[in-house]
């Protein structure tokens, strides 16, 4: 049974006539009669009693009418759902993020998105840069808010720079270096370091190690942490000093002091990544929103540029 034929059958049943149904369907009466005859032949039952005066539906026709109305209603619902999904009005958006780098603006960005797309299911998962690269490659994320991806995770990925951070020094607030206004990287040479684990952000880790090497020393790593907040806690606890992106000053800095570095240790871009070959409408809508919001985001993040 085709949807087109069921629609013809319902129209005949509701209007109680072939000619009236033909006018409503913008066709001719013989075409309507042929569709109903073919349907009766397919089902092996009579659907209408026909006479020169009227058309009456049979018991079998009544049964089909109830089912046909449900089928047509379901077809209409399915059509609208598919059209809404195609326009990004429904669906899902899976975002991986580094909280220390985007907590100043991500909640507002997500709220703005959900106001425009209330029926899109948004999930937020805090993940380090390397884990985001793997999840993006595996199709488990739609958006990755991260640092630059490692080469193995960059295939088939498009990237949009959101803002650029700078490396800063972080020292215990009772350390002699805390009395300074600025530091040279070499000033940190005699002190043990607290760093973020390389397995979570290999590019950032290597950038910091290289900056220290360029300053003439190799880092003495006393402790490695699995989050930037834990890095700050290690510094505040007196386990060592750190070099990290300036954005982490938005975290709990109790017991720590941040100091600008006199040397340019290189930019630390914060980037929106997505699969170039798998861009669903909700993903595209979020990317467009991020582009529209980029100037405001950069204004918010001026502290860390």
Low-confidence stretches: none
What is the number of helical segments per DSSP (H or I, 4+ residues)? 10
- End-to-end separation in angstroms reads 65 Å
User: What is the strand tally?
Assistant: 11
Task: Please give a quick description of this structure.
With 305 residues, the chain is an alpha/beta fold.
Write up what this structure looks like.
The chain is 42% helix and 23% strand. The chain has 305 residues and is of the alpha/beta class. The strands form three sheets. Strands 3, 4, 5, 6, 9, 10 and 11 form a seven-stranded mixed sheet that branches. It is rod-shaped.
Chain-wise SSE layout:
Blueprint: H1 3-15, H2 18-24, H3 29-43, E1 48-50, E2 55-57, H4 59-86, E3 90-97, H5 99-102, H6 106-116, E4 119-126, H7 129-137, E5 143-146, E6 157-172, E7 193-196, H8 202-214, E8 221-225, H9 228-236, E9 242-245, E10 256-260, E11 267-275, H10 281-300
Parallel strand pairs: 3-4, 3-5, 7-8
Antiparallel strand pairs: 1-2, 5-11, 6-9, 6-10, 6-11
Feature tags:
single chain, 11 strands, rod-shaped, two-stranded antiparallel sheet, 10 helices, 305 residues, 23% strand, seven-stranded mixed β-sheet, alpha/beta
């Amino acid at each position: 049974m085709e949807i087109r034929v069921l629609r013809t059958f319902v129209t005949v049943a509701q209007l109680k006539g072939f000619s009236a149904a033909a006018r409503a369907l913008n066709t001719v009466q013989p075409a309507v009669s042929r569709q109903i005859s073919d349907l009766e032949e397919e089902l092996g039952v009579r659907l209408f009693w026909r006479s020169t005066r009227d058309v009456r539906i049979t018991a079998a026709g009544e049964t089909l009418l109830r089912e046909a109305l449900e089928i047509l209603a379901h077809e209409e619902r399915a059509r609208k759902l598919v059209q809404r999904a195609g326009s990004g009005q429904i669906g899902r958006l899976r975002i991986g993020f580094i909280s220390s780098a985007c907590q100043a603006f991500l909640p507002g960005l997500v709220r703005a998105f959900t106001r425009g797309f209330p029926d899109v299911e948004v999930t937020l998962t805090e993940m380090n840069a390397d884990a985001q690269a793997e999840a993006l490659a595996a199709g488990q994320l739609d958006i990755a808010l991260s640092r630059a991806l490692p080469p193995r995770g960059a295939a088939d990925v498009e990237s949009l720079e959101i803002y650029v951070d700078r490396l800063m020094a972080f020292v215990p607030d009772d350390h002699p270096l805390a009395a300074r206004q600025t530091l040279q990287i070499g000033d940190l040479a005699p002190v043990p370091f607290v760093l973020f684990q390389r397995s979570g952000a290999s590019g950032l880790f290597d950038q910091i190690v290289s900056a220290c090497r360029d300053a003439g020393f190799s880092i003495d790593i006393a402790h490695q942490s699995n989050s930037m907040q834990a890095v700050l806690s290690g510094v505040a606890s007196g386990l060592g000093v750190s070099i990290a992106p300036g954005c982490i000053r938005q975290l709990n800095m109790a017991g720590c002091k941040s100091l600008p570095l006199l040397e340019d240790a290189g930019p630390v871009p914060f980037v929106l990544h997505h699969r170039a070959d798998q861009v669903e409408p909700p993903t595209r809508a979020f990317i467009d929103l991020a582009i529209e919001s980029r100037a405001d985001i950069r204004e918010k993040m001026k502290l860390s540029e």
